[in-house]
Amino acid sequence: MQQKTALILLVLTGLFLVNFSHAGNKKSTISNGKIESVIKSIQEKQSNADAFLLKKGVVQVARLWRESDGSAEEFQSFCEENYVANPEERKQLFLRFDRHYEVLWGNLLKLQLELNEPNHMDIGELTDVDMMFAAYNPQAHLAEDLFANKIAFVTALNFPELSLDEKNDLGKDWDSLDWAYARIGDVFTSRIPASLLQARSNAATTSDAYISEYNIFMGHVIGKDGKKHFPEDMKLITHWNLRDELKSNYSTENGQYKQEMIYLVMKRIIDQSIPQAVINSPEYDWDIINNTISKKGKNVTSESEPDTRYQQLLNNFLTTKALDEYYPAYPTYVERRFSGNMEIPQEEVERIFIDLVSSEEVKDLAKLIKKQLGRDLRPYDIWYNGFKAQSSLSEAELNEITQEKYTNPKAFEADMPRMLQDLKFSEEQANFLASKIQVDGSRGAGHAWGAEMKAEKARLRTRIGAEGMNYKGYNIAVHEFGHNVEQTITLHDVDYYMLRGVPNTAFTEALAFIFQKRDLELLGLEEKNAAKVHYMALANLWSCYEIMGVSLVDMAVWEWMYANPNATAAELKVAVIDIAKEVWNKYFAEKFGVKDEPILAIYSHMIDNPLYLSAYPIGQLIDFQIEQQIEGKVFADEINRIYSVGRLTPKYWMENAVGKELSTKPLLKASRGALEFLK
Q1: Rounded CA gap, 669 and 28, in Å?
Q2: For the chain, what is the radius of gyration of the CA atoms?
Q3: Does residue 274 sit in helix, strand or coil?
Q4: What is the pLDDT of residue 22?
Q5: Cα separations (Å) of 669 from 541, 604, 672?
Q6: CA-CA distance, 446 to 484, in Å (whole number)?
Q7: What number of other Cβ atoms are within 10 A of residue 110's Cβ?
Q8: Exposed/middle/buried for 182, CB within 10 Å: 0-12, 13-18, 19+?
Q9: Cα(412)–Cα(392) distance, rounded to whole angstroms?
Q10: What is the Cα–Cα distance from 502 to 344, expressed in whole angstroms?
Q11: What percent of the chain shows pLDDT beyond 70?
Q12: CA end-to-end span of the chain
């Protein structure tokens, strides 16, 4: 899982689209006539000015200019005095910006991370005061100051925003400096009141804490036989640990019975019939069938959770929607998230997803899974993991290995150089990369958070129990480790700070998946299998099928909220469940033989990380194409080559990485071959 809280929403989205504020009025005071006059004046004084960039820069500054910034004449004077046409002088100006923004953003992120430590890390009871500091956004007034002292205007004037179409059209002839110019142009595209940014931060932090503390004590859940079937101390965060525990029971004694119990827990979370008292509490036993609770054998009355899950989602929507009017190019969050942040239009993402979930390959794979299970498919079989590379060791045996090896966060941190060398990174680079990653115990499921300046470390936060890191936790930690390696390479090895990172979060998810699949290898337990490449294709296909379905629900829910902005949490709950059932019936019911299932609504990302879910399946498609690219090559060499290019648009990044555009075709083709092989 990638970063989740306020700054990922406001700072670390890759484009910095939602980041700058101003308390003044929203309307520009600069007329079209004045804009034309300024452009003509600069062209007369600087004959070598690029007409295209000059016009875009002046228009952008005019759009952002407010009465409090000065008169129309002061606007003209500012533009004439600060526009830099000479290429070498423009480069030097950029280099100063490149340095100073790293100082600003890097230190502000450091402050935010340290204030959030009680919220993110398992370092004691989380208090109301901790939450207040976590919700504070030190960035909220930054842009207000940068507009006030005109730094923002100098940036926008000389490095204006280019549209996605313009980047993809012009980018074919660009070098890394041109791309860096384009990326600094993404910085100052709007002016948002600080109060709105702070409200957005508050909602994000609150929903993050809500999800991070949403644990189910499965050892206190009673099945229809009146018995408990899970370890007494088993504490599972929703949805991640519930899903992973469900997946682990495909090969255990009484496994399907336990899967059915977990599935019913999930359904009660979705419809909010879950008793409030059992959330994050081991005090009560919960009869999952009758939905009653007891304490020391005596029945206890408990109210259901009062639609809190959907109120958190609604709060995120309302505080995000409040920013819409400040983005004329992307007037809804859906557009900002896809065309702006992801740089893949929502319509294209949806088309890619529907292409895969409707494919004949998925239909045939469902039949194969049914045959392998020897039973009809159940809704939770969206998480079937029978095609994952398996060790001959049981999960209990794997737990013993990981718990002994990683007794605390620092033990995992100390082993990172060895793991990287096993992946063929040189000793020097392995030590460097590991030195830039700090491992902490996580309060929630875990996350990776990259640094924003070279002097700081990326954070790997993962949940580790009192007995050490179990295999599930280790598997997640390796995923987050992949994020951190990407974050470190793309900060330190790119040509310019403004090129740091990847095109969007799907591209860091891709490397996280690539690392995660090698978790057994990194324990020295990988077993050779001639059919491994086929299993990898089918595992990727089934995983994409599941998460694309969830993502289609996520997108449809946001469309519904925009169409019903005054909805209550109760109304939103009904809508989410209806949408989940609709997507299920359209793309899953035929394959599973059951209709009207709500399971696609369980994902916690929907609640605390607006429209992030699409990054996962896009990341899995990228993951598969990269795996094909690096097959037979030195792993570390290819990863360094691919990820050190910097933050191009997805189109050019993929062309550099694998020589092809992002597509479902390679995965579907490989899956067809795998299905034929396994017949």
Answers
A1: 53
A2: 26
A3: coil
A4: 34
A5: 11, 32, 5
A6: 12
A7: 17
A8: buried
A9: 23
A10: 14
A11: 95
A12: 35
- Tokens for 339, please give them: 């065309």
Which amino acid belongs to residue 195? S
User: Cα 414 from chain centroid?
Assistant: 26
Which DSSP string corresponds to 635-672? HHHHHHHHHTT-S--HHHHHHHHHSS-S-SHHHHHHHH
8 Å CB contact between 520 and 389: yes
Identify the burial level of 422 via C-beta atoms within 10 angstroms of its C-beta, where 0-12 means exposed, 13-18 middle and 19 or more buried: middle
SS3 440: strand
Residue 566, classified by CB atoms within 10 Å of its CB into exposed (0-12), middle (13-18) or buried (19+), is exposed
d(CA 235, CA 242): 9
Token pair listed for 296: 């020391």
Block residue for tokens 């994020």: 483
What SS3 string covers 214-257? CEEEHHHEECCCCCECCCCCCEEECCHHHHHHHHHHHHCCCHHH
H helical segments located in 46-84: 51-64, 72-82
Q: Which two tokens stand for residue 166?
A: 């313009």
Continuous segment of H or E residues that includes residue 449? strand 446-449
Residue 526 main-chain phi, psi, to 5 deg:
-65, 135
Amino acid identity, position 147: F
Amino acid at 579: I
Q: How far apart are CA 358 and CA 351, in angstroms?
A: 11
Residues contacting 329, CB < 8 A, separation 6+: 161, 163, 189, 340
Helix (H, G, I), strand (E, B) or coil at 328: coil
Most confident of 85-94, 188-197, 249-258, 457-466: 85-94
617: left (phi over 0), alpha (psi -120 to 50) or beta: alpha
Give the span between the Cα atoms of 401 and 522, in whole angstroms.
12
Q: Give the model's pLDDT for residue 8.
A: 30
State the DSSP code for 138.
T
Place of tokens 């990380």: 609
Q: What tens digit of pLDDT does each residue of 98-107 get?
A: 999 999 999 9
pLDDT band at 77 (very low <50, low <70, confident <90, very high): very high
Paired tokens of 579? 């949408």
DSSP string, 600-640: GG--THHHHSTT-TTHHHHHHHHHHHHHHHHTTS-HHHHHH
Length of the chain: 679
Read off the pLDDT of residues 207-242 as tens digits, 9 standing for 90 and up.
Answer: 999 998 999 999 999 999 999 999 999 999 999 999
pTM above 0.90, yes or no: no
Residue 567: its H or E element: none
Pairing of strands 285-287, 221-222: parallel
Rounded Cα distance between 498 and 154, Å, is 16
Q: For every residue of 450-476, which 3-state class applies, written as one string?
A: CCCCCCCCEEEEECCECCECCHHHHHH
Q: What residues have CB less than 8 Å from 102, skipping those under 6 apart?
A: 452, 453, 454, 497
Q: Which residues pair with 447 in a beta bridge?
A: 461
Spatial separation of the C-alpha atoms in residues 210 and 213, rounded to whole Å: 5
Distance CA 48, CA 585 (A): 61
Q: Tokens in use for 634?
A: 């030195």
Q: Which of 284, 281, 236, 282 has its CA nearest to residue 261?
A: 236
Residues 574-591: what's their mean pLDDT?
98
Give Cβ neighbours of residue 410 (< 8 Å, ≥ 6 apart): 439
Ordered DSSP codes for 281-302: --SSEEETTTTEEEETTEEE--
Instruction: Give CA 551 to chain center in angstroms.
Output: 12
